[in-house]
């Protein structure tokens, strides 16, 4: 898959994993697992990028005698998901057009 | 492999990264392992699910810009003594020119590789053009009513077509090889720069 497209997709996936509430790295990977396998190093890079883009905020909190990082989505992050939905409804309509052409030829 | 050996291995592989960057990543993987243990996995299973330190380091390095690795590599680990600075400046006509020469050699090797690949395709194009030319020649003589010459040109055309196809197959294989070589070199250099050897 095209690198740029994939990166954009994975960013939104990570945002979607924290959309309904604060979460932490391992939980996010587990939540995404039925849909996509994301490696830890990939998730790390994405979280850093999203933090830099102010689409999520990070806080460290104590959990069971150790520190764990929690990620929370921001307004900007929610906007990004919305933007993604709009983009993809357009792409889906183009996709339907492309596959319809193919069926006509068969 | 347990958590400690995994993290120690990873630390060694990433020794060339800036301290903050490295520790933050190690904390991240440490947290990932702790969460897996809490989830009921054994230490062995938890480490296994992340991969070997080498594999994880390779993934990490793929995402880190070469510039950051180099900056860390050339950053002095301690303040230089006065005589070292003097030597460095006095020696600059030697080491600076050697450095430039080294970079130039590396760059030329790279250029030569791609020039060879380029020339392969030029030859393929020339063979294809010859095939087309021979075909025109055959048509020309046939039109002039000289079937002997036409036959000769048609034969030459077939030979050229055959050679073109063979040449394209060869060029394709060599181009793929060149791409593999140049893309393989980059992660290799990164790993070499950041790994801390046992002997050091």
Molecular structure report:
The complex is a heterodimer of chains A (106) and B (200). With 106 residues, chain A is of the alpha+beta class. Chain A has a single domain, classed as Winged helix-like DNA-binding domain superfamily/Winged helix DNA-binding domain (Arc Repressor Mutant, subunit A, Orthogonal Bundle), CATH 1.10.10. Helices cover 63% and strands 17% of the residues of chain A. Chain A has four helices and three strands. Chain A has a three-stranded antiparallel sheet with strand order 1-3-2. In chain A, a hairpin with a 2-residue loop joins strand 2 and strand 3. In chain A, helix 1 packs across helix 3. The mean pLDDT of chain A is 88. Chain B is an all-alpha fold. Chain B has two domains: 73 residues, no CATH class; 103 residues. Helix content of chain B is 84%, strand content 0%. Chain B contains eight helices and no strands. At the A-B interface, helix 2, helix 3 and strand 3 of A face helix 2 and helix 4 of B.
What descriptive keywords fit this protein?
heterodimer; A: 106 residues; alpha+beta; Arc Repressor Mutant, subunit A; three-stranded antiparallel β-sheet; 4 helices; 17% strand; elongated; B: 200 residues; mainly alpha; 2 domains; 8 helices
Tell me the fraction of residues in β-strands of chain A, as a range.
15-25%
What is the fourth-level CATH superfamily of chain A? Winged helix-like DNA-binding domain superfamily/Winged helix DNA-binding domain
Tally the helices of chain B: what do you get? 8
Percent strand of chain B: under 5%
Q: Which bin fits the share of residues in helices of chain A?
A: 55-70%
- Helix and strand sequence of chain B: HHHHHHHH
Number of domains of chain A: 1
Element-level helix/strand string of chain A: HEHHEEH
Q: What topology does this entry show?
A:
The complex is a heterodimer of chains A (106) and B (200).
Chain A: H1 3-17, E1 23-24, H2 25-32, H3 40-52, E2 56-63, E3 66-73, H4 75-105
Antiparallel strand pairs in A: 1-3, 2-3
Helix pairs in contact in A: 1-3
Chain B: H1 3-13, H2 19-38, H3 43-50, H4 53-63, H5 66-74, H6 82-90, H7 92-143, H8 147-194
